[in-house]
TrEMBL record:
Keyword annotations of the record: Isomerase, RNA-binding, tRNA processing
Domain of life assignment: Archaea
Organismal lineage: Archaea, Methanobacteriati, Methanobacteriota, Methanomada group, Methanobacteria
Provenance organism: Methanothermus fervidus (strain ATCC 43054 / DSM 2088 / JCM 10308 / V24 S)
Function: Responsible for synthesis of pseudouridine from uracil-54 and uracil-55 in the psi GC loop of transfer RNAs.
Family: Belongs to the pseudouridine synthase Pus10 family.
Record-annotated active site: 230 (nucleophile)
EC class (word): isomerase
Name of the protein in its database record: tRNA pseudouridine synthase Pus10
A single GO BP: tRNA pseudouridine synthesis
Pfam families: Pus10_C, Pus10_THUMP_arc
Classification via Gene3D superfamilies: 3.30.70.2510, 3.30.70.3190
EC numbers, comma separated: 5.4.99.25
């Protein structure tokens, strides 16, 4: 061990500060202390080392003298931004040559702590005392980013998104799930879209996001649904699961019940939000990947008269081979999807119209299951009946996840 210490002293020319000494050797020498500075002092005393304390540290260039300044700047920046938060994390950017010197010296021992980790912790300790907030290494509300590449520390506050999860019911037809940019101007605004930049006046996303953006003072939002229904399809029952991502929110402590009331009131009976609660980013991945089933109520027109005996031709459950429907082929990959229909309950409404209650695997296009889509969906209601069928109304009445 004395050889390693000797090599470190020689490599640095003795110009190594007590903090870097403690950081690099304390684990190897099993020296305890309140922080690396205290550990370094103990190592220096224990080994009777002659360090050139009057010189700048070969490794860190006395960067730890700037820690208090960095913490004060971070506190000022947070107060200036008027951010509401409970947890934080510190990250830093250091000069490349400093990182190289640190790597060069720490490679001489097996258990040295990196200089970046020490800096982040020391800034974090000061902010924890000043702000009375706790450090969170997994899902911090904000990240304090300190850049030491300049003469004076430069501080940037990254405000992480706030995630809320719930379900929505779409009670009317004619509203898309998400904002639909105008296809003519791509959202810039033109005569075709009345200079609004979108194809439809409103969307489920905008109806839900409006009050939430206002309450959180977020910059913008992003909507993540567990699938989507067509514009002309209602979403009933217990609703469709969704996560809304609020970007750069200045407020996080929300009265969710009150906000739900505000959303539902402003929606004027078009959309209803249920079961709103806090969640995290991982829930988005879960919603997108989870295997689900959907229950639909479809009204279908039949060419020619339909009789009770015709309904017996409709199989209650079967496997469907469905090629990408013609109506979405311009924006979906052209491939054959295999999906299962778990149950179909048909009922005659009049001589040309039937109601179908369909329970099917998620991802099945129901309108094409009924029409056959010129043979791209097999089997279909059209094929089973031997008569052309067309879906004229469709509601989603349950989603199971």
């Amino acid at each position: 061990m004395k050889e390693i210490v000797k090599e470190i002293i020689e490599s640095t020319g003795g110009a190594i500060c007590e903090r870097c000494l403690g950081r690099i050797l304390s684990r190897e020498l099993k020296v305890e202390g309140h922080d690396n500075l205290e550990r370094g002092k103990k190592i220096k005393e224990k080994l009777n080392l002659d360090l050139k304390s009057e010189n700048r540290c070969y490794i860190c260039d006395n960067i730890f003298d700037k820690i208090d300044e960095a913490a004060e700047k971070a506190e000022d920046k947070i107060n200036e931004l008027d951010i509401e938060f409970s947890t934080f994390l510190v990250g830093s950017t250091l000069p490349p040559d400093m990182l190289q010197r640190d790597k060069e010296i720490t490679s001489l021992v097996s258990k040295a702590e990196s200089i970046k980790k020490d800096i982040n912790r020391e800034i974090g300790k000061r902010l924890r005392r000043k702000l009375k907030k706790r450090v969170d290494y997994q899902n911090p509300d904000i990240v304090v980013k300190v850049n030491f590449r300049y003469k004076d520390p430069n501080v940037y506050i990254q405000i992480n998104p706030l995630y809320l999860e719930g379900r929505y019911r779409k009670l009317v037809r004619g509203i898309p799930q998400t904002k639909w940019p105008c296809k003519h101007c791509r959202g810039k605004g033109c005569p075709k879209c009345n200079f609004k930049g979108k194809m439809y006046e409103e969307s489920v996303e905008e109806i839900i996001a409006g009050p939430l953006i206002e309450a959180t003072k977020a910059r913008e939002s992003k909507f993540h649904g567990a699938g989507r229904e067509d514009i002309d399809v209602r979403m009933l029952g217990k609703g469709r699961p969704f996560v809304i991502e609020l970007k750069e929110p200045r407020r996080r402590k929300l009265d969710l019940d009150k906000i739900v009331d505000e959303i539902n009131k402003s929606a004027e009976g078009k959309v209803e939000v249920l079961f709103l609660k806090y969640t995290n980013r991982s829930r988005i991945v879960e919603l997108k990947s989870i295997k689900s089933y959907k229950v639909y109520r479809a009204i279908a027109e039949i060419e020619g008269k339909i009789k009770e005996e015709d309904l017996k031709k409709i199989e209650p459950s079967f496997i469907v081979k469905q090629r990408t429907p013609l109506r979405v082929s311009h924006r979906r990959a052209d491939k054959v999807r295999i999906r299962k229909v778990y149950d179909i309950k048909p009922k005659i409404l009049d001589e040309n119209t039937i109601e179908l209650k369909i329970k099917a695997e998620g991802g099945l296009y129901i309108k094409e299951l009924i029409s056959g889509d010129e043979g791209r969906t097999k089997p279909s209601i059209t094929e089973m009946l031997g008569k052309q069928a067309k879906c004229i109304k469709l509601d989603v009445i349950d989603i199971g996840i």
